[in-house]
Specification:
Layout (H helix, E strand, L loop, with lengths): L7 E2 L2 E6 L17 E7 L5 E7 L4 E7 L6 H5 L4 E5 L2 E2 L13 H9 L9 H10 L1
Antiparallel strand pairs: 1-7, 2-3, 2-6, 3-4, 4-5
Length: 130
């Protein structure tokens, strides 16, 4: 008997911008692409769920959609935003080693298992092609 494997599909907004705090490695990153984080509307659409991986931990914020109707209203004019709707196979348990950067956290959340994407700009270029 055949069974249908469930696949998870969610719409995420991936935000790319300059890091607020300058670190030694930000000099090596493309201007406007030294940090990235995720936004998603909650079930029912009342809140934005914002997943922001910073150097030492992951911040998760909730903001009212009424206050910020679009991701651009939250991020400001200088951020680059990509809408992405991955289809994640929950049975694909491929392990990806990483350095726990903002890019690695985003790749884990959206189910992207490509090892060679290390910087926010590389992630942007890859997602833009899809």
């Amino acid at each position: 008997m055949f069974s249908i494997k469930p696949r998870i599909s969610q719409t995420w907004y991936i935000v790319f911008e300059d890091s607020i705090k300058k670190r030694w490695y930000t000099r090596c990153l493309k201007k406007g692409f030294s940090h990235c984080y995720l936004m998603q509307k909650s079930e029912g659409g009342l809140f934005w769920i914002i997943v922001n991986p910073v150097w030492s931990h992951v911040l998760i914020h909730y903001r009212l959609v009424k206050t910020f109707p679009s991701p651009r209203d939250y991020t400001g004019e200088y951020a680059t935003i990509i809408e992405y709707s991955p289809f994640i196979d929950p049975y694909n348990h491929a392990c990806i080693l990483g350095i726990n950067s903002c890019v690695d956290v985003i790749k884990r959340v959206i189910g992207l298992k490509i090892f060679h994407i290390l910087t926010p700009y590389q992630l942007f270029k890859y997602l833009r092609r899809l």
